Amino acid sequence: MKSLPYFCRGEVIRGFGRGSKELGIPTANFPDSVVDHLPADISTGIYYGWACVGNGDVYKMVMSIGWNPYYKNTKKSMETHVIHTFKEDFYGEVLSVVMVGYIRPEKSYDSLEALIAAITADIEEAKVKLELPEHLKLKGDNFFTSAPSSSSSIAGSNKSTSPTILNGH
């Protein structure tokens, strides 16, 4: 995937309400304006990388991009699980992420327990891979220090040095 690392940001919106409630794995969801502008070579599946809420700290993350086959979604989504425990929800805040690697394609599962086990394994794999020097250096990318504090800027790019980053262009 030549578009990795891929940098994007957008306002956190309400998703399907399943991450925390059914799975015990809270997710932050991007609006369609971010999802619709993903590069063509970023296929559906599970990714790992770095995430920052507003101007806060940068944490490890895993992200599901796609249709969530277990739930048979009819709408493509980008759901980010930031590997950190937050004290409260952050709907309306700007989430900045850099996707640095791909873990696996999305797939359906026979049970909710099997889905949770797969997500837990994805999280553990992300934690390990993000310790590699080539991935660790992206945690300090200036993309995160230039994160806007409001939702007025939605962006995506695979080049963090662009002075104006807007939806992958």
Overview of the structural elements:
The protein is of the alpha+beta class. The protein contains 5 helices and 7 strands, in the order βαβαββββαααβ. It has helices at residues 19-23, 32-35, 112-129, 133-136, 142-145, and strands at 6-11, 28-29, 45-53, 58-66, 77-82, 94-104, 155-157. The chain has a 7-stranded antiparallel β-sheet. β3 (45-53) and β4 form a beta hairpin. The protein is globular, with a radius of gyration of 15 Å.
Q: Which short descriptors sum up this protein?
A:
21% helix, 169 residues, alpha+beta
Question: How would you briefly describe this protein structure?
Answer:
The protein is an alpha+beta fold. 21% of the residues lie in helices and 27% in strands.
Q: Whole-Å distance between the termini? A: 17 Å
Q: Tally the helices: what do you get?
A: 5
Helix share bin: 10-25%
- Described by the principal axes of the CA atoms, the overall outline is globular
By secondary-structure content and strand pairing, the structural class works out as alpha+beta
Series of H and E elements: EHEHEEEEHHHE
How is the secondary structure organized here?
Elements: E1 6-11, H1 19-23, E2 28-29, H2 32-35, E3 45-53, E4 58-66, E5 77-82, E6 94-104, H3 112-129, H4 133-136, H5 142-145, E7 155-157
Antiparallel strand pairs: 1-6, 1-7, 2-5, 3-4, 3-6, 4-5
